Protein backbone atom coordinates (compact mmCIF):
# COMPACT_ATOMS: atom_id res chain seq x y z
CA UNK A 1 0.00 0.00 0.00
CA UNK A 2 2.97 2.31 0.66
CA UNK A 3 4.12 2.03 -2.97
CA UNK A 4 0.61 2.59 -4.27
CA UNK A 5 0.29 5.75 -2.19
CA UNK A 6 3.74 6.92 -3.27
CA UNK A 7 2.90 6.43 -6.95
CA UNK A 8 -0.41 8.24 -6.44
CA UNK A 9 1.40 11.08 -4.65
CA UNK A 10 3.95 11.52 -7.47
CA UNK A 11 1.21 11.35 -10.11
CA UNK A 12 -0.68 14.05 -8.21
CA UNK A 13 2.43 16.27 -8.09
CA UNK A 14 3.07 15.70 -11.81
CA UNK A 15 -0.55 16.56 -12.64
CA UNK A 16 -0.37 19.71 -10.50
CA UNK A 17 2.82 20.82 -12.25
CA UNK A 18 1.20 20.26 -15.62
CA UNK A 19 -2.19 21.72 -14.84
CA UNK A 20 -3.43 24.43 -17.18
CA UNK A 21 -3.07 27.06 -14.44
CA UNK A 22 0.56 26.20 -13.70
CA UNK A 23 1.41 26.04 -17.41
CA UNK A 24 -0.17 29.43 -18.02
CA UNK A 25 1.89 30.80 -15.13
CA UNK A 26 5.05 29.44 -16.79
CA UNK A 27 4.02 31.14 -20.04
CA UNK A 28 3.39 34.39 -18.15
CA UNK A 29 6.85 34.09 -16.57
CA UNK A 30 8.43 33.71 -20.02
CA UNK A 31 6.57 36.83 -21.23
CA UNK A 32 7.55 38.82 -18.13
CA UNK A 33 11.18 37.96 -18.81
CA UNK A 34 10.80 39.12 -22.42
CA UNK A 35 11.29 35.58 -23.71
CA UNK A 36 8.44 35.55 -26.22
CA UNK A 37 9.89 32.77 -28.35
CA UNK A 38 9.86 30.39 -25.37
CA UNK A 39 6.36 31.57 -24.44
CA UNK A 40 5.17 30.96 -28.00
CA UNK A 41 6.76 27.50 -28.17
CA UNK A 42 5.31 26.47 -24.82
CA UNK A 43 1.85 27.85 -25.65
CA UNK A 44 1.70 26.09 -29.02
CA UNK A 45 2.90 22.83 -27.45
CA UNK A 46 0.29 22.88 -24.68
CA UNK A 47 -2.50 23.90 -27.06
CA UNK A 48 -2.24 20.37 -28.42
CA UNK A 49 -3.46 19.09 -25.05
CA UNK A 50 -5.70 22.00 -24.00
CA UNK A 51 -7.32 22.63 -27.38
CA UNK A 52 -10.57 23.96 -25.88
CA UNK A 53 -9.05 26.14 -23.15
CA UNK A 54 -9.64 29.75 -24.20
CA UNK A 55 -6.86 30.99 -21.89
CA UNK A 56 -4.16 29.45 -24.08
CA UNK A 57 -5.57 31.27 -27.10
CA UNK A 58 -5.56 34.51 -25.10
CA UNK A 59 -1.91 33.88 -24.22
CA UNK A 60 -1.18 33.22 -27.88
CA UNK A 61 -2.91 36.44 -28.95
CA UNK A 62 -0.94 38.38 -26.33
CA UNK A 63 2.34 36.89 -27.57
CA UNK A 64 1.45 37.77 -31.16
CA UNK A 65 0.72 41.34 -30.04
CA UNK A 66 4.16 41.55 -28.42
CA UNK A 67 5.62 40.25 -31.66
CA UNK A 68 3.61 42.89 -33.56
CA UNK A 69 1.74 40.26 -35.53
CA UNK A 70 -1.66 41.93 -35.43
CA UNK A 71 -3.25 39.65 -38.00
CA UNK A 72 -2.49 36.45 -36.08
CA UNK A 73 -3.43 38.08 -32.77
CA UNK A 74 -6.80 39.07 -34.18
CA UNK A 75 -7.44 35.61 -35.61
CA UNK A 76 -6.59 33.89 -32.34
CA UNK A 77 -8.54 36.26 -30.09
CA UNK A 78 -11.66 35.72 -32.19
CA UNK A 79 -11.38 32.01 -31.50
CA UNK A 80 -10.76 32.59 -27.79
CA UNK A 81 -13.83 34.84 -27.62
CA UNK A 82 -15.92 32.16 -29.34
CA UNK A 83 -14.88 29.72 -26.62
CA UNK A 84 -15.50 32.18 -23.78
CA UNK A 85 -17.15 35.48 -24.82
CA UNK A 86 -17.24 36.87 -21.24
CA UNK A 87 -13.52 36.53 -20.56
CA UNK A 88 -12.25 39.90 -19.36
CA UNK A 89 -8.79 39.23 -20.72
CA UNK A 90 -10.22 38.30 -24.11
CA UNK A 91 -12.35 41.43 -24.16
CA UNK A 92 -9.33 43.58 -23.26
CA UNK A 93 -7.13 41.96 -25.91
CA UNK A 94 -9.78 42.43 -28.57
CA UNK A 95 -10.14 46.08 -27.56
CA UNK A 96 -6.39 46.54 -27.70
CA UNK A 97 -6.33 45.01 -31.18
CA UNK A 98 -8.97 47.53 -32.28
CA UNK A 99 -6.78 50.28 -30.80
CA UNK A 100 -3.75 49.02 -32.71
CA UNK A 101 -5.82 49.03 -35.91
CA UNK A 102 -6.75 52.69 -35.21
CA UNK A 103 -10.42 51.77 -34.84
CA UNK A 104 -10.71 53.97 -31.77
CA UNK A 105 -14.51 54.00 -31.51
CA UNK A 106 -14.73 50.20 -31.49
CA UNK A 107 -11.69 49.99 -29.22
CA UNK A 108 -13.27 52.39 -26.75
CA UNK A 109 -16.52 50.44 -26.65
CA UNK A 110 -14.71 47.13 -26.12
CA UNK A 111 -12.18 48.46 -23.61
CA UNK A 112 -14.94 49.99 -21.51
CA UNK A 113 -16.43 46.50 -21.22
CA UNK A 114 -13.06 45.20 -20.04
CA UNK A 115 -12.83 48.08 -17.56
CA UNK A 116 -16.09 46.96 -15.94
CA UNK A 117 -14.59 43.50 -15.40
CA UNK A 118 -11.16 44.81 -14.33
CA UNK A 119 -11.69 48.21 -12.67
CA UNK A 120 -8.58 50.18 -11.79
CA UNK A 121 -6.41 48.25 -14.24
CA UNK A 122 -3.79 50.76 -15.35
CA UNK A 123 -3.25 49.14 -18.74
CA UNK A 124 -6.96 49.20 -19.60
CA UNK A 125 -7.38 52.77 -18.33
CA UNK A 126 -4.33 53.84 -20.37
CA UNK A 127 -5.86 52.35 -23.50
CA UNK A 128 -9.25 53.98 -22.84
CA UNK A 129 -7.50 57.30 -22.21
CA UNK A 130 -5.56 57.07 -25.46
CA UNK A 131 -8.71 56.21 -27.43
CA UNK A 132 -10.36 59.31 -25.99
CA UNK A 133 -7.38 61.44 -27.01
CA UNK A 134 -7.45 60.04 -30.52
CA UNK A 135 -11.17 60.69 -31.03
CA UNK A 136 -10.83 64.25 -29.79
CA UNK A 137 -11.91 63.94 -26.15
CA UNK A 138 -8.58 65.39 -25.06
CA UNK A 139 -9.44 66.43 -21.51
CA UNK A 140 -11.14 63.16 -20.68
CA UNK A 141 -8.30 61.22 -22.28
CA UNK A 142 -5.64 63.13 -20.35
CA UNK A 143 -7.57 62.68 -17.10
CA UNK A 144 -7.71 58.92 -17.71
CA UNK A 145 -4.02 58.78 -18.64
CA UNK A 146 -3.18 60.66 -15.44
CA UNK A 147 -5.28 58.18 -13.48
CA UNK A 148 -3.47 55.27 -15.15
CA UNK A 149 -0.15 56.95 -14.33
CA UNK A 150 -1.23 57.27 -10.71
CA UNK A 151 -2.06 53.57 -10.60
CA UNK A 152 1.23 52.53 -12.23
CA UNK A 153 3.73 55.40 -11.95
CA UNK A 154 6.64 53.25 -13.09
CA UNK A 155 4.95 52.10 -16.31
CA UNK A 156 6.96 53.69 -19.09
CA UNK A 157 4.29 53.20 -21.76
CA UNK A 158 1.71 55.08 -19.66
CA UNK A 159 4.23 57.88 -19.18
CA UNK A 160 4.82 58.03 -22.94
CA UNK A 161 1.12 58.10 -23.78
CA UNK A 162 0.48 60.80 -21.17
CA UNK A 163 3.39 62.92 -22.39
CA UNK A 164 2.26 62.61 -25.99
CA UNK A 165 -1.33 63.50 -25.07
CA UNK A 166 -0.18 66.58 -23.16
CA UNK A 167 1.97 67.69 -26.10
CA UNK A 168 -0.95 67.20 -28.50
CA UNK A 169 -3.22 69.15 -26.18
CA UNK A 170 -0.70 71.97 -25.90
CA UNK A 171 -0.22 72.04 -29.67
CA UNK A 172 -3.98 72.06 -30.25
CA UNK A 173 -4.47 74.96 -27.85
CA UNK A 174 -1.57 77.02 -29.16
CA UNK A 175 -2.92 76.57 -32.72
CA UNK A 176 -6.36 77.78 -31.59
CA UNK A 177 -4.83 80.85 -29.94
CA UNK A 178 -2.99 81.87 -33.11
CA UNK A 179 -6.09 81.68 -35.32
Q: What is the rounded Rg?
A: 20 Å
Q: Supply the number of helical segments.
A: 10
Distance between the termini: 89 Å
> Class by helix and strand content?
mainly alpha
Shape: elongated
Helix content: over 70%
**Mean model confidence by pLDDT:** 90
What is the string of SSEs from the N terminus onward? HHHHHHHHHH
Q: Describe the biggest sheet?
A: none
Strand content: under 5%
Number of strands: 0
In short:
The protein has ten helices and no strands. With 179 residues, it is mostly helical. The mean pLDDT is 90.
Description:
This protein has 179 residues and is mainly α. It is built from ten helices and no strands. It has helices spanning 2-17, 20-32, 36-47, 54-66, 70-83, 88-100, 104-117, 122-134, 138-151, 156-178. α5 (70-83) packs antiparallel against α6 (88-100). The chain starts with a helix and ends with a helix. The mean pLDDT is 90.
Feature tags:
elongated; mainly alpha; 179 residues; single chain
Topology of helices and strands:
Layout: H1 2-17, H2 20-32, H3 36-47, H4 54-66, H5 70-83, H6 88-100, H7 104-117, H8 122-134, H9 138-151, H10 156-178
